[in-house]
Amino acid sequence: MTDSSFASLGLSKEQLANLDSLGYEEMTAVQEKVLPLALDGKDVIAQAKTGSGKTATFALPLLSKINPRDFGAQALILCPTRELATQVAAEVRRLARHQKNIKVVILCGGQSIGPQIGSLEHGAHIVVGTPGRIKDHLRKKTLRLSRVNTLVLDEADRMLDMGFMDDIETIIKQTPRDRQTVLFSATYPDNIESLSERFQQSPVKVSVESLHDEGQIRQLFYLTQRSRKLDSLVKLLGHYQPERAIVFCHTKDATREVSAHLQKMGIATLALNGDLEQRDRDQVLIQFRQQSCRILVATDVAARGLDIHELPVVINYDLPKDPESYVHRIGRTGRAGKEGLALSLLTDREQHKLDGIGAFQGSHLTAEPIETLNGSATMTPPDFVTLCIAAGRKEKIRPGDILGALTGEAGIPGSAVGKIDILEYAAYVAIHHNVVAKALEGLQRGRIKGRSFKIRKL
Ligand code: AMP
Question: Which residue, by CA, sits nearest to atom 11 of ligand 1?
Answer without folding.
Answer: 53
